[in-house]
Amino acid sequence: MEKPKLIVDGRRLDGRGFEELRPIKIEAGVLKRADGSCYLEMGKNKIIAAVYGPREVHPRHLQDPSKAVIRYRYNMAPFSVEERKKPGPDRRSVEISKVSREALEPVIMKELFPRSGIDVFVEVLQADAGTRTACLNAASVALIDAGVAMRGMVTAVAVAKVDGEIVLDPMKEEDNYGEADVPIAFLIRNGKIESIALLQMDGRLTLEEMRRAMELAKKGVMQIYKLQREAIMRKYMREGEDYEGSEEAMEVERERECEEAKGEGEKERENRKEEGRNE
Ligand code: UDP
């Protein structure tokens, strides 16, 4: 197919400006059986992330007595792409799983969970370029949802060069026909970018273009980071609301009242003793 014009009158094919992200939707805690989970949409990408653990590692010989073992599996559903994808792992998914695991590993406080394993599964239900970065964003939220101790949040976005322009968050056409594609992930700590967790590059950029790409990526991830945080907060607010009036909350309240009554009884006995002594 002939390369389409990717930028017309300073706008991209989907109407976005160069510095604009695709619409993003993030929801934490969507799977009942996982310890942590997340559903994320970034443009037409649709991703599910599920985290299991920290839990016992099988097979046992993979255990590490000093820290947790992290496993990350990136998988694309056969129906996620235009041309049906053969099910099962391939070179691309093995590579993406490896680099994504390496991006998350230093951020997870593995030393707190010796001999255990933390498994991260990400499933691409619909793909439209930038799935490895979208998956990392979902995985990070799912890890926090699972209560895994983290040094910060991993937030990722891709930057591309299309028709000579550096643009944020490329979609499929831009990825296919662009001159360069650069997925980047950052470790964000206390609302500030601390370090680069992943950086890959397909194509060529000049040093100046790379600087511009980094600048756009930083702007983009701060917006995504805010949405990741909001998704986690919403999940905990929801849990708080579910907790109020629940059987568990009532039980805690009954115990508290019992303890209070015991305390009162004791005080009264003490007072009576004191009065007896004074008489
Ligand atoms: N893609 C596809 N079939 C495949 C692999 C990828 O159609 O077997 C598409 C899919 O939309 C993906 C895009 O190509 O998002 C770009 O893939 P790339 O390897 O650059 O990774 P991504 O940008 O998704 O991280």
What does this structure look like?
The protein has 279 residues and is of the alpha+beta class. It has two domains: 237 residues, Ribosomal Protein S5, domain 2 (2-Layer Sandwich), CATH 3.30.230; 33 residues. The chain has five helices and twelve strands. Strands 3-4-5-7-6 form a five-stranded mixed sheet. Strands 8, 9, 10, 11 and 12 form a five-stranded antiparallel sheet that branches. Helix 2 runs parallel beside helix 4. It is elongated and about 105 Å long. The mean pLDDT is 94. The site of uridine-5'-diphosphate (UDP) has 14 residues, from helix 2, helix 3 and strand 10.
Supply database-style keywords:
Ribosomal Protein S5, domain 2, 2 domains, 37% helix, 29% strand, binds uridine-5'-diphosphate
SS class:
alpha+beta
Known CATH architecture of the largest domain: 2-Layer Sandwich
Write out the strand line-up for the largest beta sheet, numbering strands in chain order: 3-4-5-7-6
Please identify the top-level CATH class of the largest domain. Answer: Alpha Beta
> Which small-molecule species are bound to the chains here?
uridine-5'-diphosphate
Counting H and I runs of at least 4 residues, what is the number of helices?
Answer: 5
The figure for the number of domains is 2
The average pLDDT value, as a whole number, equals 94
Roughly how many Å is the radius of gyration?
25 Å
- Biggest β-sheet strands, sense, barrel: 5 strands, mixed
Pick out the low-confidence regions: none
The percent range for helix content is 25-40%
CATH topological fold name of the largest domain: Ribosomal Protein S5, domain 2
Shape annotation? elongated
> Separation of termini?
105 Å
Tell how many strands the DSSP assignment holds.
12
Question: What name goes with the CATH superfamily of the largest domain?
Answer: GHMP Kinase, N-terminal domain
Strand proportion: 25-35%
The H-and-E topology, N to C, reads as: EEEEEEHEHEEHEEEHH
